[in-house]
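Lab notebook, bench 4. The sequencing result for the construct came back, and we need a structural model before the next group meeting so we can plan mutations. Quick request posted to the team channel:

Model the 3D structure of this chain.
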Amino acid sequence: IEKGHLQPENLGLSLAEAKELLLHTQCSLVNQQIAEYQKQQELCSHCHQKLLHKDRRTITYRTPFGKLKLPSHRLFLSKFQQWYPALKADNSLMSHPA
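Done. Here's the predicted structure in C-alpha cell form:
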C-alpha cells in the first residue's frame, strides 16, 4: 500500500484500506475452503459412489467486508441416497441460499 508522503495522520491503514485487504484475504481463503468442500462432497458418504453434477451456479455471500461471488455445484443423489431419503441432508450445504 503506497502512502506517498508520510504524515502522522496517514500512518497505518485507513478503514477502507483495511476492509479491502481483509476482503481479498477472505476471498482467497473462502475459495480454497470451497474447493476442499466440493472435493469432499464428490462421493456419497455411504456408498462412495461418485456423484454427478446437476449444474453449477454462482451465489452471492454477504460479509462485513463485502460481497463474495462463490461457485455452487449442485449434485445428484447417489442410488443409496435415493433409496434412503433420510440421508439426503448430507449435501444440504451445497445449495445454501445467499
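The longest strand covers residues 53-63.
Will bring this to the meeting.
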